[in-house]
Design brief:
It is built from two helices and five strands. By secondary structure, it is an alpha+beta fold. It has a five-stranded mixed beta sheet, with helices on one face. The radius of gyration is 12 Å and the shape is globular.
């Protein structure tokens, strides 16, 4: 998949509120490849690859999250897509 890669760290009340499952559904709906997982520090980590304009939609969604989430911060690192990711999974 051509395009860009983003590595996100999402902080706030983002664990135990269906954030990962909701992020996966959003990424799949947008046609992105990657993965999402909980981190031991309470954050959620997400890696996605796809067209830049589509990734921007996912980043905007990550600031909102599912209804029970409270997002305080989204750190974004950008780079070139590796092309190695297939589908979108929850780790």
């Amino acid at each position: 998949m051509a395009g860009e890669r983003v590595h996100l760290l999402i902080r706030g009340r983002v664990q135990g509120v269906w954030y990962r499952a909701s992020a996966r559904a959003e990424a799949e709906a947008l046609g992105l490849a990657g993965w999402v997982r909980n981190r031991p520090d309470g954050a959620v980590e997400l890696v996605a690859e796809g067209p830049s304009e589509v990734l921007e939609k996912l980043i905007a969604w990550c600031w909102e999250g599912p209804p029970l989430a409270r997002v305080d911060d989204v750190q974004v690192e950008r780079g070139p897509a590796s092309g190695e990711l297939r589908g979108f999974g929850v780790k």
